[in-house]
Amino acid sequence: MPLGSPAIAAYRRTGADPPFGDPARDHGVAMEGYYWRLFHPEAGWVIVWLCGICRVSDASWATVALAAHPGGFLRHGTLAPASGDFDRFGARAGDAFRGSLHELRVRMGDDVWVKARFRPRVTWPKRVLGALGVAHVVPGLAQYWHPVLLAAEVEGEACLGGRSVRLDGGHAYAEKNWGPGFAGRWWWGHAAAFPDIDAGVAFAGGRLPVLGNGAAATAVVLRLGQRVLRFVPPLARARVDVRTNSWRVQVRSPRHRLELEGEAGGEEPHWLPVPDVAQRRVDIRSQQVLAGRLHARVRCGRRTLIDAVSPLAGLELGEPAHEVGFPPPAPRPP
């Protein structure tokens, strides 16, 4: 069946992707999340942009946030209308944001904006399945996740509350998540500032409802130079211990052993918005540390591939809503 057929389009609207499909494209589900992470190991800054596109009936809106380290900068709000790209990785919201594999343009006021250009070095390789493996072909899951841009060089500039930041020499990472909404509790991390090692690691997991019960699942993607490894069930099993200031993920596969130990390192988390699509509101329930530390130990048989610590690690813990959300604005015509 052709990948562009109406039947495939209907199948993708369940959140699933066929073999040899592209999970980076918009699916048309209730919530499609886009995330860019820019960082500069030498200069010590991190900039994060997130955009959660929500669809309710024939209306669309997005919850957006721009966060940065150092200084604890955060600006968030809602934009309308909003849309993802059905042909490739990319999204836009109102007149204030557009982003893709090659650029990020944000303007949230005269004192808050980003103009970044990316030179991709490593994107997700063309494979039968995406980062979640066989889970991508299963329709109707509560959440899907897929790293898209695993390594890129950055140039450009930003203004964060009136403070100018040169982006040249920085690095970028981008990913997607999508589904009918967010898990009640989830964990996530990304690190790629390992000294003297061209490597990066990202993980994501959560407690999701399965047949009325709660089940926890975690996926890990490891980049070694241009090589990309995926660790997901059933071939890889993960054990997770996540607390307010620590993240511990242990993975075993037939060939590899991974130990990821993340810590906030005294850094205060940014509280980021999460869309509640069904209630048409935004909850502040994501705690993300922008500049934590992650110690990665990776072995293949008896050979050690990585045993190093990355500063500027992104580490996140999402919890059920604790605060009353606020409704998005009424959608404006394009």
Structure description:
This protein is an all-beta fold. It has one domain (6-17, 24-318). Helix content is 2%, strand content 60%. Strands 1, 2, 3, 4, 5, 6, 7, 8, 9, 10, 11 and 12 form a 12-stranded antiparallel β-sheet that branches. It is globular. The chain starts with 5 loop residues before the first helix and ends in a 16-residue tail after the last strand.
List the main descriptive attributes of the protein structure presented here:
334 residues, mainly beta, twelve-stranded antiparallel beta sheet, ten-stranded antiparallel beta sheet, 1 helix, disordered C terminus
Compile the SSE list and pairings.
Elements: H1 6-12, E1 31-40, E2 45-56, E3 59-69, E4 73-79, E5 82-84, E6 90-93, E7 97-100, E8 103-109, E9 112-123, E10 144-160, E11 163-166, E12 170-179, E13 185-191, E14 199-210, E15 213-224, E16 227-231, E17 237-243, E18 246-252, E19 256-263, E20 270-276, E21 281-300, E22 303-318
Antiparallel strand pairs: 1-2, 1-12, 2-3, 3-4, 5-6, 6-7, 7-8, 8-9, 9-10, 10-11, 10-12, 13-14, 13-22, 14-15, 15-16, 17-18, 18-19, 19-21, 20-21, 21-22
How many separate helices?
A: 1
Low-confidence stretches: 329-334
Percent strand: over 45%
Radius of gyration of CA atoms, rounded to a whole number: 19 Å
Q: Determine the fraction of residues in helical runs and give it as a percent range.
A: under 10%
Structural class: mainly beta
Could you state the order of secondary-structure elements as H and E?
A: HEEEEEEEEEEEEEEEEEEEEEE
Distance between the termini: 34 Å
Largest sheet: 12 strands, antiparallel
Total beta-strand segments = 22
Mean pLDDT across the residues is: 92
